[in-house]
Amino acid sequence: MNPRWPIVITYLILFAIAIPWYWHWFGNAATQPVLGLPRKNLVSLLGVTGMGMLTVWQMIQHWQKDADD
After folding, report:
1. Tell me, what's the pLDDT at 66?
2. In terms of Cα–Cα distance, which of 1, 4, 14 is closest to 53?
3. Which of 14, 19, 56, 60 is most buried, by CB atoms within 10 Å?
4. Would you list the domain boundaries of the chain?
5. Which of 62, 63, 64 is nearest to 1 (CA)?
6. Distance between CA atoms of 32 and 24, rounded to whole angstroms?
7. 13: pLDDT confidence band, cut at 50, 70 and 90?
8. What angle do CA 53, 23, 45 make, to 5 degrees?
9. Which of 18, 16, 14, 3 is CA-nearest to residue 54?
10. What is the 3-state secondary structure (H, E, C) of the chain?
11. How far apart are alpha carbons 50 and 45 in whole angstroms?
12. Beta-carbon-side half-sphere exposure of residue 50 (alpha carbons within 13 Å)
């Protein structure tokens, strides 16, 4: 099995985006509403959604390879 460093790095970036602990550094920009949600909440939701979509894509890729073998 080949190491998939781009996938690992993508997970780490999405994980860092999904954690809103650093948003207090942005001041009022973190709490400005976007689509009715504070910006930090919307970015966290997008990060978690991205991780979920990446996980599903990886599982589909893996299962298709097993079915072909």
Report:
1. 67
2. 14
3. 14
4. 1-31
5. 62
6. 12
7. very high
8. 25
9. 14
10. CCCCHHHHHHHHHHHHHHCHHHHHHHHHHHCCEECCEEHHHHHHHHHHHHHHHHHHHHHHHHHHHHHHC
11. 8
12. 17
* Single pTM value for the model: 0.74
Q: Residue written as tokens 């690992």?
A: 8
Residue 32 backbone dihedrals phi, psi, to 5 degrees: -65, 130
Average pLDDT, integer, range 43-61: 92
* Average of per-residue pLDDT across 27-54: 90
pLDDT at residue 6 above 60?
A: yes
**Single-letter residue type at 63:** W
Structure tokens at 49: 């959604």
Instruction: Identify which of 40, 44, 41, 62 has the alpha carbon closest to the alpha carbon of residue 52.
Output: 44
What are the tens digits of pLDDT across the range 21-40? 888 887 888 888 899 988 88
